[in-house]
Amino acid sequence: MLVSLNVKNLALIDAAEVNFGKGLHIMSGETGAGKSIIIGSVNLALGAKADKDIIRNGAEYALVELLFQTDAKEVETLLKEYDLPVEEDGTIIISRKIQPTRSIFKVNGETATAKQVKSLAEYLLDIHGQHEHQSLLRKKKQQEILDDYAWNELQEIYKSYQEAYQMLQMAKQELSENALDEDARLREMELAQYEIREIEAAGIVIGEDEELEKKYQTLLHGRKIVESASVALMTTGSNMDQAGSQIGRALRELTGVASYDDRLETLTAQLGEIDCLLSDFHRELTDYIEDMDFSEEAFAEIENRLNVLNHLKAKYGKSLEKVREYAHERQEQLDKLLDYDTYLNALKAKVQKLNETCMNKALEMSDIRKKAAKKLADELKQALTDLNFLHVELEVAVEREPLLTSSGFDAITFLISTNPGQGLKPLQDVASGGELSRIMLGLKTVLAKDSIDTLIFDEIDAGISGKTAWKVSEKLGLLSKEHQIICITHLPQIAAMADTHFLIEKSVKEGVTTTKLCELSKDERIRELARMLGGGEITDAAMENAKDLLNQSAAFK
Q1: Among 449, 446, 447, 492, which residue's Cα sits nearest to residue 473?
Q2: Exposed, middle or buried: residue 50 (CB in 10 Å: 0-12, 13-18, 19+)?
Q3: pLDDT by residue (tens digit) across 13-26?
Q4: pLDDT digit string (tens) for 67-122?
Q5: Closest by CA position to 449, among listed 216, 74, 208, 149
């Protein structure tokens, strides 16, 4: 259940906090007051696209926060899967901070992605927007509705079919990619054999290229290294003007007088260590220079080997490991090509077997859908009768298409007749906007899942009035006994059924336009219903009619 909505700096809303309870919540107000901003803010919090212009003028950011209370196991499972905090009392706080350059989603205080928030929302609420009923005209949506209705029986076989269908598509793709004529097969064999020979002839040793590159760099700069090392050797040598000779002389001088002062003994020892270190350094540097005997032949050999290895990497992979993997793959392909008929026949047999598996599973799904279609049609017909479709006939047709798709081979069509003597026709050919709106409400009534507590309707009353409006009101009242309902409406018949009634109004203060929302008392409700009944002027007659509507609603509930 949605417990509260907190909005800040969003469009015309400076700051608004709305608390919700159980039952039917109605939002009404003058046209242009900003009613849809409230529902829009819920959509924004749950991942809808946000334009930077939605931020209120002068504000640095907009904030929407939703507080839910739920015991749905699916929600707890998702939170754990996404490594998001799980509260013991079932509280879920979803917030979105909208800034000019980015948005930040949080769930229970931890940063989340829009995708994660949308996944959670599927189990928390169901929003019926102003234009959603138009989706009923699409056959894909009609199939989704039927599958949703039959999901308990359908889901296991549906998931099994999806796995088999994916394997079938992969096998078909492999068959298509490997369907070669004899000339193409021979060309591919020759190419594979050439590439394998080229790689094998190189005698690749993993890591060899890195080691050779180090040696290459050393040899490439060998002359400079030898010159610098020779200068270092010369300056540290034992000739009269070199460091080794000077340190040796200093050591001899100190040794001759060290016995006269204890402190000189320490200094003499330190200098002795330096003399030894310098001697060791001199010997090692001499050995290094001798080892650095630069060889043009060795340099050319290493350079040629690196060229071979780099050529293979440029041609077959970015590393020697990748080159080896490529050779292994090509060998497998070559083996297939050498025994091509056997390979191709096995692949065709695999495709045929998977196709048969998919067909059998599709038949099972079709049987489940046909049984569910009859039940859905009966329940939806009753729901539409309750919504003042007096002579409605309805059928959910399940017909077979010639080709398999990702959902089987069924094409689902909602057929309807709303007038006596009129034959059944596809929904898209006969239903008006107002009828579609009522059909969607009927479907919501039939399909409403126990696991989804909150249903939101944005202007469900489009295109209806009079007795039909009252029937819609009654249906919403019944639905609100099992679900929390939030509904924006222009019709007093629907507003009168509210358990909680909010007024949304726009005002201008100091040249700034703001939208605010407040919960109405009983007397305020009567006045708002009178406004909705009477238009611009609230008359005594409108007030009496408003009281009568509230009484009728109370009697129905």
Answers
A1: 492
A2: buried
A3: 888 889 999 999 99
A4: 999 988 889 999 999 999 999 899 999 999 999 889 999 999 999 999 999 999 88
A5: 149
